[in-house]
C-alpha cells in the first residue's frame, strides 16, 4: 500500500514546482545580526563621553580678587597716665572732693602711649582722640578703670556720674559709622596691648544709651598673656600700646572683687527668674579693689605717620 518513487512522476506539473519552492523562513543568524547592529549603534551613541575639547575650551571663571590689606598705619598717638588714689573711697575725705583729678596723694602707676589706626577706623579714632584732648565737652581725665578681667583685659570710659568716677556724656562727637562697617571688625584681639571700642562689653546705663545724642566712648585694652577670641567680631580694635607694657602688667595684677560660687549660683537663678536685681549685682563683679584712675591724658604729635612695629 505504500507510495513508490515513480508515483511522483504522475503528479501534475504545478504540484511538483510548489514542492521545490516551499517557503523557507530567514535564517535566525541574519535576523540576530541586524538586531545586534541596531543595539550596538544605539549603545555606542549613548555611551559616547562628552567631547573633551569642548570642556577644555570653556574658560573657567577668574578667581575673586583678594581683599585689600588692612591699613594699620599709626596716624595718631595719645597717652594715658594711670594712678591710684588711696583716699577716694575713704569716709573722712574732704566734702566736695569728688573729682579724681584732684586726688590729694596719688600713687602714679605710669604712662601708656597708644598708636591709633586712623586710616582703618577714622571716626572711632577721631572720637577717642577728642576724649583724650577734652575737645568733646568731656574727657577721660579723672575717670576710673572700673573693671579688670585677670589675664584678659581691663575696661575704662564708662559714662555716668562724675562724682562716681565715670565719664561725663560727651556732646561734641560725630556719630560713629564704623560700628556698621564690616571691615572695622576684622582685626582680632590676638595679643596684649590692643585698644578696642567696647560694644559687646559696654555697660553704660540704659538710660544714657536711650539718649538720641548718645556716643559710645567706653574702651578696653587687652592685658594678655594670651588672646581674647571671645571679643573678636564684637568689638572694634582701633589701636595698640606702643610704650608702657609694664604699666599694663601692673594694672592687670591688681586684685578684683570675685563673688563666691554660692553667690554666682543665686545670681544665675535670679536672672533665670527675670529678677532685674541680678544684673545690678553683676555690675560690681571684677571691679578692682583699689581706685585706679586716669590721672591725665592728651595727644602726642606725630611728625610722620608710620607703621606700627608689630601689627596684630
Automatic annotation (TrEMBL):
Which PANTHER family does the UniProt entry name for this protein? PEPTIDYL-PROLYL CIS-TRANS ISOMERASE CYP28, CHLOROPLASTIC
| Ranges of compositional bias, category Basic residues | 12-23
Q: Name one Pfam family in it.
A: Pro_isomerase
Region: Disordered; residue ranges are: 1-27, 51-72
Q: Which residues form the PPIase cyclophilin-type domain?
A: 107-299
Q: What GO cellular-component annotations does this UniProt entry give?
A: chloroplast
Query: What name does this protein carry?
Result: PPIase cyclophilin-type domain-containing protein
Output compositional bias ranges, type Pro residues: 59-70
- In the record, what terms sit under GO molecular function? peptidyl-prolyl cis-trans isomerase activity
InterPro entries, per the entry:
Cyclophilin-like_dom_sf (IPR029000), Cyclophilin-type_PPIase_dom (IPR002130), CYP28-like (IPR044178)
Amino acid at each position: 500500500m505504500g507510495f513508490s518513487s515513480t508515483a511522483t512522476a504522475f503528479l501534475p506539473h504545478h504540484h511538483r514546482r510548489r514542492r521545490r519552492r516551499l517557503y523557507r523562513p530567514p535564517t535566525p543568524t541574519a535576523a540576530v545580526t541586524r538586531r545586534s547592529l541596531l543595539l550596538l549603534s544605539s549603545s555606542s551613541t549613548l555611551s559616547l563621553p562628552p567631547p573633551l575639547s569642548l570642556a577644555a575650551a570653556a574658560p573657567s571663571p577668574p578667581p575673586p580678587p583678594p581683599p585689600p590689606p588692612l591699613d594699620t598705619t599709626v596716624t595718631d598717638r595719645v597717652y594715658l597716665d594711670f594712678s591710684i588714689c588711696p583716699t577716694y573711697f575713704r569716709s573722712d575725705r574732704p566734702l566736695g572732693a569728688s573729682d579724681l583729678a584732684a586726688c590729694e596723694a596719688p600713687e602714679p602707676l605710669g604712662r601708656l602711649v597708644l598708636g591709633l589706626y586712623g586710616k582703618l577706623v577714622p571716626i572711632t579714632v577721631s572720637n577717642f582722640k577728642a576724649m583724650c584732648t577734652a575737645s568733646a565737652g568731656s574727657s577721660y581725665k579723672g575717670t576710673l578703670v572700673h573693671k579688670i578681667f585677670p589675664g584678659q583685659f581691663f575696661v575704662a570710659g564708662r559714662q555716668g556720674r562724675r562724682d562716681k568716677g565715670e565719664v561725663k556724656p560727651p556732646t561734641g562727637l560725630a556719630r560713629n559709622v564704623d560700628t556698621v562697617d564690616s571691615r572695622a571688625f576684622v582685626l582680632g584681639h590676638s595679643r596684649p596691648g590692643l585698644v578696642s571700642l567696647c560694644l559687646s562689653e559696654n555697660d553704660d546705663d540704659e538710660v544714657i544709651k536711650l539718649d538720641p545724642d548718645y556716643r559710645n566712648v567706653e574702651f578696653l585694652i587687652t592685658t594678655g598673656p594670651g588672646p581674647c577670641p571671645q571679643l573678636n567680631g564684637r568689638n572694634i580694635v582701633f589701636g595698640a600700646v606702643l610704650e608702657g607694657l609694664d604699666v599694663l602688667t601692673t594694672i592687670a595684677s591688681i586684685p578684683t572683687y570675685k563673688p563666691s560660687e554660692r553667690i554666682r549660683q543665686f545670681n544665675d537663678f535670679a536672672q533665670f527668674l527675670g529678677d532685674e536685681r541680678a544684673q545690678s549685682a553683676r555690675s560690681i563683679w571684677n571691679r578692682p579693689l583699689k581706685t585706679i584712675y586716669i590721672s591725665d591724658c592728651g595727644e602726642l604729635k606725630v611728625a610722620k605717620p608710620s607703621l606700627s612695629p608689630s601689627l596684630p
